[in-house]
């Protein structure tokens, strides 16, 4: 099998800024651990309209939204990331927002170059549950990602923000949301 070239160059200034901001968050941890809370986690949740006080919300998409929010603010531009805390809601709404491209699993496997840095992977775990994170790079079908509410093993309900290298394009069962047009 021929190797697939690496895709590591962000396609726009906004995407580059979102990835750079996400990288500054690596190492953020919940406080206390396994609480879906903490100073930074609460900021992510508030950014998508949730009040974390007295609650426990999964926050992987709140994290990616916050990264794009900070990137857009740094460039004095609009945040194109759909404002939602729900992984599957994000996928569904992305199909209706102008300028946002959804890349299905089948299309990503057939042409891995369609998975660009800054894209968000979407995993559907059934029963309304999912997980998402930001793609930093692809190479030979593997993804380098920055993910919130995960751990070293890739949990959908972990303890912090991690840089991961274990995911593969063909294991992402829903697809990818591409914000590179902004």
Name of the CATH class: Alpha Beta
The SSE string, one letter per element, is HHHHEHEEEEE
Which fold does the CATH topology refer to? endopeptidase fold (from Nostoc punctiforme)
CATH architecture descriptor text: Alpha-Beta Complex
Overall body shape:
globular
Short description:
This protein is α+β, with helices and mostly antiparallel strands and 182 residues long. 28% of the residues lie in helices and 22% in strands. It has 5 helices and 6 strands; from the N terminus they run H-H-H-H-E-H-E-E-E-E-E.
Structure report:
The chain is of the alpha+beta class. The chain has one domain: endopeptidase fold (from Nostoc punctiforme) (Alpha-Beta Complex). The chain has helices at 13-25, 39-47, 60-74, 87-94, 105-110, and strands spanning 101-104, 120-126, 129-139, 142-150, 160-164, 175-178. The chain has a six-stranded antiparallel sheet with strand order 1-6-2-3-4-5. Strand 3 (129-139) and strand 4 (142-150) form a beta hairpin. Helix 1 (13-25) packs across helix 3. The longest helix has 15 residues, at 60-74. The radius of gyration is 15 Å and the shape is globular. The protein starts with 12 loop residues before the first helix and ends with a strand. The relative contact order is 0.22. Mean pLDDT is 94; it is low at 1-5.
């Amino acid at each position: 099998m021929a190797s697939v070239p690496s895709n590591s160059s962000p396609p726009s200034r906004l995407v580059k800024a979102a990835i750079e901001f996400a990288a500054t968050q690596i190492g953020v941890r919940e406080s206390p651990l396994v609480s879906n809370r903490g100073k930074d986690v609460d900021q992510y949740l508030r950014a998508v309209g949730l009040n974390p006080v007295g609650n426990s919300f999964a926050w992987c998409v709140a994290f990616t939204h916050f990264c794009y929010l900070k990137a857009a603010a740094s460039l004095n531009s609009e945040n194109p990331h759909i404002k939602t805390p729900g992984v599957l809601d994000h996928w569904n709404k992305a199909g209706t927002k102008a300028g946002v491209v959804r890349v299905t699993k089948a299309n990503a496997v057939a042409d891995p170059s369609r998975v660009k840095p800054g894209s968000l992977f979407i995993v559907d775990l059934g029963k309304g549950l999912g997980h998402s994170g930001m793609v930093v790079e692809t190479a030979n079908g593997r993804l380098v990602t920055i993910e919130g509410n995960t751990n070293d093993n890739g949990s959908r309900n972990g303890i912090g923000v991690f840089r991961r290298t274990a995911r593969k394009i063909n294991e992402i069962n829903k697809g990818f949301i591409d914000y590179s047009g902004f």
